[in-house]
Amino acid sequence: MNARAPLYQARYGSPDAPTPTAGSPVIDHLLAHRSVRAYLPDPVSDDTLTAIMAAAQSAASSSNLHAWSVVAVRDPARKARLAELAGDQEHIRQAPVLLVWLADLARLHDVATRVGESAAALDYLEMFEVGVIDAALAAQNAVTAAESLGLGTVYIGAMRNRPEDVAAELQLPPRVVAVFGLCVGTPDPRHPAAVKPRPPQSVVLHQETYSLPAQQPGLAEYDSAMSTFYASQGMKVRGTWSHHSAKRIRDADSLSGRDRLVEALRKLGFGLR
Q1: pLDDT band at 1 (very low <50, low <70, confident <90, very high)
Q2: Which of 34, 36, 171, 263 lies at a C-alpha separation of 20 to 30 Å from 144?
Q3: How many whole angstroms separate alpha carbon 90 and alpha carbon 156?
């Protein structure tokens, strides 16, 4: 049996998951990713953060614009306030550092002003998307780097629940918004995190053209795998992954305040034309 088979079996939640012959230590590392929600109080040093940020800045950036920034939050009181704004998640308080990733068009506006150019294009949706994508690419590099150093991470999408309040807490200028947070710290071995299964590749990988019907067998497999995962983790999830996901998109209330994100973004200086 291929020595890497257990990694693929865990990642897809199936003993029959195909294991390619192609492989590398980097791929093995990525396959072992898990979200960590319990941390030891050990600090993340400035030296470690410098290495992580260098990895983040090594990600691709659209047109080399670098339309993102990050705020590192270590102060317990500020983390507690941000935790309250992000659905009262205890691991935000517990993690030694919270990295808040920003779509940042303020720097580009400032650059244009300093060199005497107009910055009218910043008011278009495309530029907001550039900031979000740049931040996401950089953050994923940061996650990979942090995990390579023995640290754990978990993304905090709920940083978008109350964007104006988060902006006020972090003193963000116009044209800057928090798109997600990232807890970083040493995982607590008393609460080990599990590898959460992903859908079979037949669900997400299309050859030449896109097909919804072709995904159905894979989605059925994934419902089964996730039901097993929910039970193994003692998670109180009713029904399958399909039922759980459908409830998350049922109506505006299921968005936890993010249904007013366009309104919030405009208040924070994004034109979104």
Answers
A1: low
A2: 171
A3: 11
Measuring CA to CA, which residue among 239, 188, 27, 1 is closest to residue 11? 27
Q: Is the pLDDT of residue 203 over 90?
A: yes
Give residue 48's Cα distance to chain centre.
20
Backbone Cα Rg of the chain: 20
**pLDDT number for residue 26:** 96
The sign of the torsion formed by the CA atoms of 96, 99, 100, 105 equals positive
| Contacts with 24 (C-beta within 8 Å, 6 or more apart), sequence order | none
Q: Is 39 helix (H, G, I), strand (E, B) or coil?
A: strand
Domains along the chain with CATH numbers: 1-32 (no CATH), 46-189+260-267 (3.40.109.10)
Alpha helices in 171-240 (DSSP H): 201-204, 216-232
Task: Tell me the β-bridge partners of 181.
Answer: 100, 156
Using the predicted structure, report yes or no on whether residue 126 has a pLDDT greater than 70. yes
